[in-house]
Amino acid sequence: MNLSDYLYYIILPILAVSVIIMFVRFLLGPKLPDRVVALDLMLTTGIGIIAIYSIRTNQPTFLDIAMIMALIAFLGTVAFAYYLEKRERND
């Protein structure tokens, strides 16, 4: 079993199951922070899936897409933290 088979048969199914679990948390999250964290985790897992696909197909251009998604996820998390801080200050 080489690296490509290991990524394809072991890591990708684990990531797929984790996305399903995170999506359930996103739908059932009792509060807004739970849902935002679940969405951020889904984006991060999506970045991992894109990276594995890039390694598997030997196309490094997909890593650029993963970097852009990581920047967007980071900015979204920072914006949400700023929103929560402002909301607590107003209460």
UniProtKB/TrEMBL annotation:
> Does this UniProt record's set of keywords contain Cell membrane?
yes
Family of this protein: Belongs to the CPA3 antiporters (TC 2.A.63) subunit F family.
Q: Just give the chief location class.
A: membrane
For molecular function, the Gene Ontology terms on record are: sodium:proton antiporter activity
Entry keyword set: Antiport, Cell membrane, Ion transport, Membrane, Transmembrane, Transmembrane helix, Transport
Q: Does the keyword Iron apply?
A: no
Q: What is this protein called?
A: Putative monovalent cation/H+ antiporter subunit F
Give membrane topology per the record: Multi-pass membrane protein
